[in-house]
Amino acid sequence: MEFTIHHQVLLTVFGLAVFLGGIANKTGFCTMGAVSDWVNMGDTGRLRAWLLAAAVAMLGVTVLEATGNIAIGTTTFPPYRTANFAWLRYLLGGLMFGVGMTLASGCGNKTMVRLGGGNLKSLLVLVVAGICAYFMLWTDFYDAVFGKMISATTIKLATSQALGDLTGIGNTLVGAVVALAIIGFAFASAEFRSSKDNILAGVAIGLIVIAGWYVTGGEMGAKWKEFADFADTKPLRVETQSYTFMSPMGDTARYLMNPADTSLVNFGIVALAGVILGSLLWALVSRNFRIEWFNSAGDFVNHAIGAVLMGIGGVLSMGCTIGQGITGVSTLALGSILTFIAIVAGAGATMKFQYWQMMKDT
Asked: How far apart are CA 108 and CA 92, in angstroms?
């Protein structure tokens, strides 16, 4: 079989994802954990790592666009900068995802990391969330449940929803200023500056997201798209993109229904596999691989409900804590920022409710 540019892109994406999985496992990078630390203990270390990753990715995208090495535009997957500003979609989906990831003990990326480390609870989350994402992406479920409501509340903008375009200032200046301000905020904490793991996680994951944009939106990406245009069977989702983890769960479910059709294997599917493998390799090297299972029926139910909310909410909001909170935010898209806020609000409110319930029962 000929080793094409399509295979080169997928192999590169897979390799970067292996590194992402290993780094996330090694450093304890967890967006749900970041919210939990902040809400329950006032510890902002992992939250600053998350923000640092977004800022590094934003700065990288800003530089790559300014130098003409990539063009994000409005036709990425997902369409972060689309002029169709579906504010309700971002807020409702983000809230659902925030609640869901709290019940399921982790976001989409953390589900892969935990699974690689031996946590079989995450296998349930992956399966259930993947099925729900499949229904949102590949059936009439989204149109039937959300279509009219989202269409009725969508605002058609005169330009893209990138902050630089909306303000007229330009994405180069806005991206540089916002990214440097967030980096300054992250490092303003002496405790954060002393945490090598948090710094490593923020910088490395931000760089991996930049690499995803560069691979698919640069010279290699142009050759990839040209190959797809002339392919007898066009591969799925050959578009400018970077790392996100909810729609790939739905794409994986679709592929597993017809595994002989390799045209369905895309960026997201190999990214999922890479994160799991990277986490597994680190868990084995560090001797932290542990098989975990549910400790009660209630634990099982919570994870199952959380997975449903993640699968539906993650596709509705067009991304997860990585896909919108880092990759989407790196494009300066207003919808990504709204989703980030909604996810944090949903997760924080759920944690407060769980704490109240626990205290009430004691």
From this structure: 17
